[in-house]
Amino acid sequence: MCVRYDGVEVDDMYCDALTRPEPVHDFCIGRECQPRWEASSWSECSRTCGEGFQFRLVRCWKMLSPGLDSSVYSDLCTLAELERPPERRACKSPACGPQWEVAEWAECPAKCGRRAQVTREVRCSDETRACDPMTKPPNIKNCTGPPCERHWTVSEWGPCSGSCGYGKMVRHVYCKTPEGRVVPESQCSLENKPLAIHPCGERDCAPHWLAQDWEKCNTTCGRGVKRRIIHCAGIASGKFQIFDDEACGGTERPEDENTCFERPCFKWYTTPWSECTKTCGVGVRMRDVKCYQGRELVRGCDPLTKPVAKQTCALQPCPTEPPDESCQDRPTTNCSLALKVNLCSHWYYSKACCHSCRVVHQHL
């Protein structure tokens, strides 16, 4: 500045322009910049009807040096006790109206190597208004039974429990794969299942009813039927022998079928998948997962078998956006430094310095 002899600043015309010193700039370091959370804009709602979710990207940012503003590890913002903005929020679109809801497919009932049909329950979410029959998901499909190389294996017989007619020997009977893995008994042929209970006692044993253990209930939930094998059997000349039922006619034949009840029928139902949250790149799609007992919405379903309610959807890569002709550099960002260190490919600088990066791109 130009000053008078008494130190008062005066107009530059009173000083000799030729002797004016060059202005001096020097770098000085202020205190370290605090980190901060920055969030991208919210995505579209994950559902086009009903209640869905919106997502956004939340990152921790910090000015590391003059002009170098960069995303950093989230721990820096967390340690600074900064409240992280939410990355997900609920969003409501107009009500969906009636929707088809489907349960999981039942287990295939086919014997080994055979074909059969398997079913699932399909219900309409709204009992007062009908779902569109044209969009009803299938409730029946073809299925194939397990491979046929299953075979029965048995353990050694246990000790005899008493005298003939009352004495029994018990052993374990398993259905196994060729590799030795135990599988459900339904995968082996029940017609040639070895006996698991055997009479024992005196050398000769008159024919009497011999009941095997009950098979598993034929349903996984609710009321079903269980069966067991009943033989008229005895020991003749030291050998086990099966007789016609008439030989045991003096006593009442034990029941070979009975009702059984497994746990209540809680079932997971799912609605159709929503649209992907993105139209390109990788997005998310959602569906409702509900637990029903009959028509009642309940909480009793097994959480381990709960179908997934959210999954990523990968679409074709997003096209690169053409540069915005009217964009301006952000005044708070040192874009000249960003250009020097070639940061235009970084998503933050491509936007914050869009004008400078566009000019460089045109020259290239």
Query: How many runs of DSSP E, i.e. beta strands?
Result: 26
How many helical elements? 4
Radius of gyration: 39 Å
Provide mean pLDDT, rounded.
83
- Show unreliable segments: none
> What strand order characterises the main sheet?
10-8-22-24-25
Instruction: Please bin the fraction of helical residues.
Output: under 10%
Distance between the termini: 44 Å
Strand content: 25-35%
Total discrete domains: 5
Q: Which structural class do the helices and strands define?
A: mainly beta
In one word, what is the shape? elongated
Q: What profile does the largest beta sheet have?
A: 5 strands, antiparallel
* Element-level helix/strand string: EEEEEEHEEEEEEEEEEEEEEEEEEEEHHH
Protein name: ADAMTS like 2
Domain PLAC: 323-361
Organism: Myripristis murdjan
Keywords: Repeat, Secreted, Signal
